[in-house]
Design goal:
With about 160 residues, the protein is α+β, with helices and mostly antiparallel strands. The protein folds into 2 domains: about 70 residues, GMP Synthetase, Chain A, domain 3; about 70 residues, SH3 type barrels (Roll). The protein has 3 helices and 8 strands; from the N terminus they run H-E-E-H-E-H-E-E-E-E-E.
């Protein structure tokens, strides 16, 4: 059986060379290798080909047959590793917390413990005729996040 450590060792140099990171690596039954890679500057089709070759050219199908899928994470998939959060600072996100609350806003900051999301809302202030826009930054610990997805907008 092919192991995740084997595959990681085969792509280690390519990860450094391309300034990329592994989002997910799964070895399913029958040696089906599913590898998702992303980079701070994106991940092109050519990058997929190069990572695929780095694995295929170093595993022997005569010894052990395998199926290989290399891709970038889709825009519709949740963020899963800290590097994805770092890559998307400045973009709008939807954060679903474990207790069920949802926070939508701009991802402002990422550190080892969690993230900061900035959002605005309108509230009536005593003594004012119109509702005022209130801007708030909320710190959210990774341990409290159930799922974070990008809000895709074609209007910007």
């Amino acid at each position: 059986m092919i192991t995740a450590e084997q595959v990681k060792s085969l792509i280690e140099d390519k990860l450094v060379e391309k300034d990329c990171f592994v989002v997910e690596l799964e070895i399913a039954s029958g040696n089906q290798i599913n590898l998702e890679v992303d980079g701070l500057k994106g991940f092109s089709i050519q990058d997929c080909i190069e990572f695929s070759r780095a694995v295929e050219n170093n595993l022997d199908r005569e010894v052990e047959d395998f199926e290989l899928h290399v891709s970038s994470p889709g825009l519709d998939k949740p963020l899963r590793v800290i590097q994805q959060y770092q890559k998307n600072v400045g973009r709008d996100v939807k954060v679903v917390l474990k207790e069920g609350n949802v926070v939508k806003g701009e991802l402002k900051k990422v550190d080892e413990a969690g993230i900061v999301v900035e959002y605005s809302y309108k509230e009536r202030i005593v003594g004012k005729k119109k509702k005022q826009t209130i801007v708030k930054e909320e710190e959210i610990q990774f341990k409290n996040i159930k799922e974070t997805t990008l809000i895709i907008s074609f209007n910007k």
